[in-house]
Amino acid sequence: MIKGRQDSGENKWVLLFAVLFLAGIVVTSGCVGQQPTPPTTTTPSGTQTQVTGGTTFPTVKPTTPVIIPATGVFVKVSYIGGFNGTYGVNAVTQNVRNSGDRLYTIENATGTVTATFYKEDKSSHALTAEIWKDGRLLTSAANSTAFGKVSVTYPV
């Protein structure tokens, strides 16, 4: 009958090897003895950038410019951060939540077009809402206050 080993010392050597191996990885990775990293700057990437001291800042995600079509009725919303709100015609509205420059089509636009949007943060960037018809700006509103609100209304 074969009996199990009784503390042959082999386990101690395996443990010592594992510790030395991990220490070697840490030293060669450059994690030990590094100088503090200078603050980084925000770059358009859609992620977050961390600066020295552990503070994170959201980065600006670039958006494609909105092109207003030559025909039709549209609500355009522009905001660098998140927004939510409603838009529609004759009190029939759609709820939306988005960010950036967005263009919403108003189907069968006969009557009064309304749009109300709210900023989802306390930044001082402007939230704007516009109503367009056949490539022409009819009305617009902007708000730069924290958690600001914009409303536009126009009979088409």
Name its key features:
single chain, 156 residues, mainly beta, 6-stranded antiparallel sheet, two-stranded antiparallel sheet, 8 strands
- N to C succession of SSEs: HEEEEEEEE
Give the quaternary arrangement of the chains: single chain
Describe the global form: elongated
- Mean pLDDT reading: 80
Structural class: mainly beta
Report the major sheet.
6 strands, antiparallel
Please state the CA-atom Rg, rounded to the nearest Å. 29 Å
Overall number of strands = 8
How is the secondary structure organized here?
Blueprint (H helix, E strand, L loop, with lengths): L9 H20 L18 E3 L5 E3 L14 E17 L2 E15 L5 E8 L7 E7 L2 E8 L5 E7 L1
Antiparallel strand pairs: 1-2, 3-4, 3-5, 3-6, 5-8, 6-7
Description:
This protein has one helix spanning 10-29, and strands at 48-50, 56-58, 73-89, 92-106, 112-119, 127-133, 136-143, 149-155. The chain is mainly β. It has a domain at 73-155. Strands 3, 4, 5, 6, 7 and 8 form a six-stranded antiparallel β-sheet that branches. The protein has a two-stranded antiparallel sheet with strand order 1-2. The N and C termini lie far apart (96 Å). Mean pLDDT is 80; it is low at 36-47.
Summarize the structure.
This protein is mainly β and 156 residues long. It has one helix at residues 10-29, and strands spanning 48-50, 56-58, 73-89, 92-106, 112-119, 127-133, 136-143, 149-155. A hairpin with a 2-residue loop joins strand 3 (73-89) and strand 4.
